[in-house]
Amino acid sequence: MTAPLLSLRGVSKSYGQIHANQGIDLDVAPQSIHAILGENGAGKSTLMKLIYGVEMPDTGEMLWEGEPLKLTSPAVARRYGIGMVFQHFSLLETLTVAENIALVIDGRKAELIERITTLGREFGLEVDPLAHVHALSVGERQRVEIIRCLMTNPKLLILDEPTSVLPPQSVTKLFETLKKLRDSGVSILFISHKLEEIRAVCDHATILRSGLVTGNVDPREHDAHDLARMMIGRDM
Ligand code: ATP
C-alpha cells in the first residue's frame, strides 16, 4: 500500500477497569474508504475520540503522514485535516444553512453561499444555502454537516454511523458522495456495524471486538458470515 495517511501503533485506552481499546494497529491509506466495524461496545467510538482529539491514548503511537500525531483537542485535529461528522447533528434549527456554516467558517456570506453550492454540485451534496434547517430532511441536514467539514479541506473525514439516521434512498446517495470524495483525494473513516453496507462501499475494514482488532481485511473479499465471525466471534 502507498504510505498511510494515518497510522496507529499499539494504541490503548481504558476507563477504569474497562479496556475500551487494546493495542490497536491501524493504517488508513490515502484516498480510501476505511470501515471501523464492530458491534455495540466494541470500542469504535473510543477509537474515533482518539483520532479526533477528544481523548488521549494511554499508550501507543499515532502517526500522520509518517510523523508523530499529538492530538490534544478536536481543534488540533481539524488543523491537521481531520474532520468529523457526528451521528447526532449539531445544526441550529432556526438558522439557515449558510448561517450555520458562517458560525464556524470565516468568509463573506456571498462567498460561503457560492462554496456551499459548488461543493453540493461536485459531491452530490445539494442543499439550498438559504433554507432554514428546520425545513430540511434528515438527509439534507447530514449533507450540511458534511459540507461544513469539507469547508476546512480535510484529508480525513470520520463519519460515525452515518446511515443509522437515513432512509434507504439517502443511503445510496450518501455512498455516491463518499466515493466521489475518495476519488477527489479525501480518505473516509466509516464507523458502522452494518456488514452489507461496509461490503458495498468500503475498500478496507478494521474489525474490533471487545477493544481488540480481530481483522484487517478488504471487505469485498469476504462474505457477511466471515465478517460476522470476526465481529462477534461466531456466525450471525
Ligand atoms: P456503541 O456502538 O454502543 O457506541 P462502541 O463500539 O462505540 O459502541 P465504545 O463506546 O467505544 O464502543 O465503548 C467501549 C467500551 O468502553 C464499552 O464497554 C463502554 O461502556 C466503555 N466506555 C466508553 N466510554 C466510556 C467512559 N467515558 N467511561 C466509562 N466507560 C466507557
Explain how this protein is built:
The protein has 8 helices and 10 strands. It is of the alpha/beta class. The strands form 2 sheets. It has a 6-stranded mixed sheet, with helices on both faces. The model has no long low-confidence stretch (mean pLDDT 94). The structure holds adenosine-5'-triphosphate. The site of adenosine-5'-triphosphate has 11 residues, from strand 2 and helix 1. Adenosine-5'-triphosphate binds at residues 15, 18, 20, 38, 40-46. Residues 6-235 form the ABC transporter domain.
Please give the structural blueprint.
Layout: E1 6-15, E2 18-28, E3 33-37, H1 44-51, E4 59-64, E5 67-68, H2 74-80, E6 82-85, H3 97-102, H4 109-123, H5 138-150, E7 156-160, H6 168-183, E8 187-192, H7 195-201, E9 204-209, E10 212-217, H8 224-232
Parallel strand pairs: 3-8, 3-9, 6-7, 7-8
Antiparallel strand pairs: 1-2, 1-4, 4-5, 9-10
The site of adenosine-5'-triphosphate has 11 residues, from strand 2 and helix 1.
